[in-house]
Design a protein that fits this description.
- The protein is α+β, with helices and mostly antiparallel strands.
- It contains 16 helices and 26 strands.
- Among the domains are: 90 residues, Single Sheet (N-terminal domain of TfIIb), CATH 2.20.25; 98 residues, no CATH class; 157 residues, no CATH class.
- A five-stranded mixed β-sheet has the order 8-9-10-11-15, with no helix packed on it. Strands 17-18-19-20-21 form a five-stranded antiparallel β-sheet, with no helix packed on it. A four-stranded antiparallel β-sheet has the order 1-2-3-4, with no helix packed on it.
Length: 672
């Protein structure tokens, strides 16, 4: 998810339906799915076709499979029966008892209490709701009836377990969250009625939240997905964070593209659909306090990082750093942070006791020199809570100042941070956008080399920019040449470069003229006499693109928009690299950070897939395609001949091992 790359995809046959969420077996690293209610499928990453993987048909319909890190998968059937996967696989057709008769399972969850797997599920019958708690190792099952709530019913459930007590939270249709406590140690076998207590009313300042799903963040905070409606206004889908300890709405975020109504939480990340994409949000909760809950926190006693939720993945949003005081939960908003406390009330305390958010808030109006010096000291700290998130906040603050002051651009500081810290695109998504706007190809090169999760659209834009920029301009800027220095002549000799002067060519006095309006015909002599279609600086930039991670399905649509002349130039460079690699026995380019032959061939195939029809029609591409075809055909013939003698070479190798190395002999082998 962090790299935004699909790793695998499996499909059932037409007419089959996956009937419960697929889970991963943490012990065996296998996937487990159920289709058509009873058919169990188990497979691993290397498997491609689901028809050929393990299959077992069960005797009863499956409701849900829960996978526990140390307890293995647990299977809950629609009739209330429970089995561990190991027991089930010993006899897939074993009879499964029907415990709940006419009740319908509405929700379930599994936990590990020590070494004991515990399963809890709720059912409904004729408007009554029941709770079942199953301890698998002890084979004990307890049934409870949920206390009825007049004129309302539960819509969603969530639960957690602590100190032998299950805390069940119920989201009701009367816009309230109720809490139910269930002790694990029960002596009575009779059905008991569970009383509930009001935990939270989902209304604030006249607005009411109609929740659809929710998750527990910590003992004092919950997140609820739903529609927030104010009197006389149209309801809006929102993700909201509530402080249950002080009954306050901590913060909320509108989701204009709509959601499916489902919300998941795993390892301090939210997962939900927004429009047509899966959105992943990092969050951080600090210890709750009354001052933070009502926005009146005036000073700080602990050097914690300010809490935030990362909204970077939402489309078309302006990224703004979260500057809310610590010991709270905050969201990055589209335009500005709404802080309940007035900024003028932030106390002036010692820097060592300030959170990152408070430091950035205090530096908002500082001079450029003070601003950069403070940020340099901040990023140089070896130990910092939530270091990655804090560095992301620092870069976001720099980018925000760049946007408010177009003349300000701290290139050296940004380069220093990116080169010395392990960052990702998702932590600072506006960084590359600003670098593109400022035409900072050096920073773009470093980002392409270091960021593992750059979206394909940004990769394509970088490629287009690198191909468009003039060679003359590239000579005037600093570019990392380590990927080309071992196989290309880095001394750019103007006398050896033949350039067609174009009407809108390079003009040192005009910044916009650094971009060629059409591709110039350039060749650059290399150290070994071969001609490279681009200069060493441009070659180094293109190498950074070749080595960036991508998904073919997402990159190909963008690559089709590449202008034909640029596509031809790029293919000429790829062909040059391909020939260079093939000259070596190990088919690798010398030097560091060089693209591999697999990366080169993958990009050649992508480019030809995207522009083959155009390439065939272009006169200037005819010779290139012909040369490429001849070279590939020669390579195929060469490897075909090698395959023919592979058996003989293996036999020769075997004989060499068998022969006494101490004895001198001459042996003649005849290859037939």
């Amino acid at each position: 998810v962090s790299d935004q790359k699909p790793l695998g995809c499996w499909s059932v046959k037409h007419g089959q339906i996956i009937t419960c969420p697929v889970v991963c077996n943490f012990e065996t690293h296998e996937y487990i799915a159920v289709h058509d209610d009873k058919v169990l499928r188990i497979w691993k990453n290397k498997d491609i076709n689901l028809d050929k993987v393990f299959k077992a048909t069960l005797s009863a319909d499956v409701y849900r499979i829960h996978s526990l890190p140390n307890g293995g998968p647990v299977v809950l059937f629609k009739g209330g029966g429970v089995r561990t996967l190991d027991v089930l696989l010993e006899a897939p057709q074993q009879e499964i008892e029907n415990i709940i008769s006419d009740e319908i399972v509405k929700w379930s969850e599994a936990f590990m209490e020590g070494q004991q797997p515990v399963l809890i599920f709720t059912t409904e019958k004729d408007g009554d709701f029941f709770v079942y708690v199953q301890k698998l190792k002890m084979n004990s099952l307890h049934k409870y009836k949920l206390e009825q709530q007049e004129l309302s019913k539960p819509l969603s459930f969530t639960a957690y377990i602590k100190n032998q007590i299950i805390t069940l939270l119920c989201l009701y249709s009367n816009d309230s969250v109720y809490e139910v406590l269930i002790p694990l140690q029960q002596n009575s076998e009779e059905e008991q009625i569970l009383s509930k207590s009001l935990l939270l009313k989902l209304s604030v300042s006249g607005s009411v939240l109609k929740g659809t799903s929710f998750v527990v963040l910590d003992k004092d905070h919950i997140a609820i997905l739903g529609s927030l409606a104010a009197p006389g206004e149209e309801s809006k889908e929102c993700l909201t964070i509530w402080n249950t300890k002080f009954q306050t709405l901590q913060t909320s975020k509108e989701l204009p593209l709509g959601t499916s109504g489902q919300l998941w939480c795993y390892e301090e990340k939210f997962f939900f659909t927004h429009g047509k994409v899966l959105t992943v949000m990092m969050y951080k909760c600090e210890t709750s306090s009354l001052a933070a809950a009502v926005g009146k926190l005036k000073d700080s006693q602990t050097p914690d990082v300010s809490s935030f939720i990362d909204w970077n993945t939402l489309a078309d949003e302006e990224l703004v750093v979260s500057l809310q005081s610590e010991q709270s939960v905050a969201l990055k908003s589209e335009s500005k942070m709404t802080l309940r406390s007035k900024r003028s009330t932030v106390a002036k305390v010692q820097p060592d006791t300030l959170s990152v958010g408070q430091i950035l808030l205090n530096l908002k109006d500082a001079s450029t020199t003070v601003f950069e010096n403070e940020l340099r000291q901040l990023v140089s700290k070896a130990q910092m809570p939530d270091f990655q998130a804090s560095i992301g906040c620092v870069i976001t603050a720099l980018i925000k100042r760049c946007k408010t002051n177009p003349k300000y651009y701290p290139q050296n500081l940004l380069l220093h941070i990116v080169e010395t810290r392990d960052l990702s695109y998702s932590l600072c998504p506006d960084l590359m956008a600003v670098a593109l706007e400022k035409k900072d190809v050096h920073l773009l090169q470093i980002c392409l080399q270091r960021f593992p999760d750059i979206p394909e659209e940004i990769t394509y834009v970088c490629l287009k920019v690198f191909l468009s920029i003039s060679e003359a301009y590239l000579q005037t800027i600093d570019v990392n040449l380590e990927s080309v220095i071992s196989y290309t002549d880095v001394e750019f000799n103007n006398k050896e470069v033949k350039t067609e002067i174009v009407e809108n060519g390079f003009n040192a006095e005009l910044e916009h003229d650094i971009w060629d309006t059409k591709i110039t015909k350039e060749t650059h002599p290399m150290a070994d006499g071969e001609l490279c279609p681009v200069g060493p600086q441009k070659a180094a930039l293109l190498n950074a693109v070749l080595q960036s991670a991508y998904s073919e399905a997402f990159l190909l649509p963008h690559l089709k928009n590449l202008p034909a002349q640029q596509a031809v130039l790029f293919l000429r460079y790829l062909y040059y690299l391909y020939v260079k690699c093939s000259e070596k026995i190990n088919t690798t380019l010398p030097g560091t950070r060089c693209p591999t032959i697999s990366q080169i061939m993958d990009w050649m195939c992508l480019l030809l897939d995207a522009h083959f029809t155009v390439m065939v029609m272009l006169p200037e591409a005819k010779e290139l395609l012909s040369n490429l075809h001849k070279f590939v055909r020669a390579q195929v013939r060469f490897y075909s001949e090698l395959n023919k003698i592979e058996g003989s070479l293996q036999e020769l190798q075997r004989r060499n091992h068998e022969r006494d190395s101490q004895t001198y002999s001459i042996e003649v082998l005849e290859f037939i």
